[in-house]
Amino acid sequence: MSDPRMWMIWPDNAALSILVLALIAMFALYAARAPMHGLLRSASHALGGPLRLGARWLFGVAAEMRARNKAVLLAQGRRETGQRIEREFERLALLVARDLQGYPTLQRKLLEEITRVEEDYKKCGEVPPPPPDWVDAVTAVAKIKTGGGEVVQKILVDIRQSLESIHDKALAEYRRAYQMRHSILEGFMPYWRSLDKTMKQVDKNMTGIQDAAAQVDAQMASYKEIAARSDEAESSLTNSAFTQFFIAALVMAVALGGAFVNFKLIALPMSEMVGASDYITSTLRTSEVAALVIILVEASMGLFLMESLRITHLFPRIANLNDRMRRRMVWISLTLLLTLAGIESALALMRDMLIQDKQALLQSLAATPAVVNEGWLGHIPTAGQMVLGFILPFALAFVAVPLESFIHSARTVGGALLANLVAALAFALRILSNLVRQASRALVHAYDVLIVLPLLVEHAVHSLRGGAPEGAAPPVDVGEKTLHPLS
Amino acid sequence: MKIRTLATSLAMAGLALAAAGCTDSRSHAQAVYMLVDNSGTYAREAGKAELVVNYLLGTLRPGDSFAVARVVNRSFSEKDIVAKAMFDTRPSEANAQKRAFRAKTEAFLRTVQATSHTDITGGLIQGAEFLNETGAGSKTIIIFSDMEEDLDKVTVRNFPIRLDNIRIIAVNVTKLGTDNIDPRRYLGRLDAWHKRVKAAGAAEWKVINDIERLDGIFANS
């Protein structure tokens, strides 16, 4: 057994031994100060250098990814906005064709109505015939002085009577003329109404065209923003992509729930077709996989249907098909979807029958009387399952729409997240490299603390000589600043 | 172009390997062989055996195998199998088979005749043969007995038997009159059977005395 006090210089005086050994160690460490500082510095560089290099590279990668993401996003945005503008122009062309095509007829109608109104107006404007010349004669007669002669008086009475009769006749004529003008004016009303209606129609058409033109203007402004590769356009497109991504994910989650219900409906009856005892994995039955495959085939048919109807654009080859082929594809996919929906409905019925059979067996085994559910109420679940089995495939077909949005927006969302992840990694590496540098500096200081006595002596000697001692330890460069011993 | 071809080939090969690896070739079917003791006073427990049979019929799935055999003077014989069936993989057919199976076992259990001797070992050997032939992934022998083996002088059963990977479950192990006098006889009997079936390579040994807890039979399967 070794002696535990073997290391002691004076076995009887541990304190003295420790002191002497510490002094020896201190001077040994002082002697090794420069190489040790160098070693720490090298280790710091060896560790921190690659970390800094890695951080810089990752920052570069992140910037490149962002640039690529931006390019892809803007290209995608430009394509989509271009398509929207195209559609707006098509709509505008339709509006113009529809509204302005009938414009000559409308104009002719307007002109005819205006001419008629003008003619009628002219008719209304006709003044009654001026009083006949005999009015002057009457005036002259009225100025005749009677002088009390009977003959004159008689003549004047006759004249008055004649005048009164003529006046009555003229007044009647005048009234008749006004009545006629009133009737003409009354005849104006339908034309005015028609004119008003026609003008309103023109106004509505013009407003519709103006709205469509405003839409095109807005889309064009957006297109210009994208073409100018502005940050606003990028930010707007990114936000739009994130919104689309989450909405599409939500809708797809709902659709997934529908698919699960669908799966539950057909998994049991599928065991009647492919057997219930075959397993693909330790927990996954072949019948379950078959049910899953049927659901996926339905979803695929729905996807092809949506593609053929040009609602989605996931497969350029389908989109590029000519109209005849496309129509054929629509009918084929629709027929297959209908067939699968019919099969599902039948499977749903079979499921119900199987469950009832199993229930009956279990009840007979348990020796309890079977619960008989007669009447139409007992058939509701069966009918419900069948209807659900028929409807769900068609409902699943519409998953193609959110799927397309999901796929398109996933590129932007995934790219943005990946770029941020790489940047975060670069940041972590930069922090790590700084930590290594700071740790190296702390170790250098700690080393100098261990050899503080020799350093004090050196400092004193240096002060006495008034300059740096020969062979003194050189200043230590640990990165940002040069450290002088005890300075 | 070459890289793309190579990548496509690798992907196809990977998919093929994954598909091959995914296929589970192990049998997931269960096979159950039930021995019903007919000897002496235990023959009166036949009503409870019917409950066990009904429970098993309700639990077993399409593709599983089931057999009920009686324990008589010498039980190492196919003639002692009262009813056996490998249920069809189609659930509707399997249900029909279960109904027929139940009718058979019911008829047997209602007219059971008590025998003078009890050959449990012979029944175990016969059961092991039946279960191994089914090729099922999980094999179980249920012994509905008091576990008191009583052989005649001619019958030889004192040799090592093979029950590899078979679960042995003793159900309704009733206490004999002598067990009540000295419970160590009962415990010793169960312990002896435990040691014997374990030595024979059985996967598990279990005793279920409460018929109400039959779900414990397949609790871990």
Q: What's the tally of helices of chain B?
A: 6
| Gap from first CA to last CA of chain A | 49 Å
Work out the largest interface and the residue count of each chain: A-B, 22 and 23 residues
Q: Major beta sheet of chain B, specifics? A: 6 strands, mixed
Helix content of chain B: 40-55%
Strand content of chain A: under 5%
Spell the H/E element sequence of chain A.
HHHHHHHHHHHHEE
Return the CATH architecture of chain B: 3-Layer(aba) Sandwich
Estimate the global geometry of chain B from the Cα principal axes: globular
Stretches of chain B where pLDDT is under 50 for at least 5 consecutive residues are 1-7
* SSE-based structural type of chain B: alpha/beta
Q: Enter the CATH topology name of chain B.
A: Rossmann fold
Q: What low-confidence regions of chain A span 5 or more consecutive residues with pLDDT below 50?
A: 478-483
How many domains of chain A? The number is 3
In round numbers, the mean pLDDT of chain B is 84
The tally of beta strands of chain A, per DSSP, is 2
Task: Explain the overall architecture.
- The complex is a heterodimer of chains A (487) and B (221).
- With 487 residues, chain A is an all-alpha fold.
- Helices cover 81% and strands 1% of the residues of chain A.
- Chain A has helices at 14-31, 33-101, 103-125, 134-142, 150-227, 231-274, 286-308, 316-319, 323-365, 380-397, 400-450, 452-465; strands at residues 476-477, 482-483.
- Chain A has a two-stranded antiparallel sheet with strand order 1-2.
- In chain A, a hairpin with a 4-residue loop joins β1 (476-477) and β2 (482-483).
- The two termini of chain A are 49 Å apart.
- Residues 478-483 of chain A have low confidence and may be disordered.
- With 221 residues, chain B is of the alpha/beta class.
- Chain B has one domain (30-216): Rossmann fold.
- Chain B is built from six helices and six strands.
- Chain B is globular and about 50 Å long.
- The termini of chain B are far apart.
- The chains are: A mainly alpha (487), B alpha/beta (221).
- The interface between A and B is medium-sized, with 22 and 23 residues.
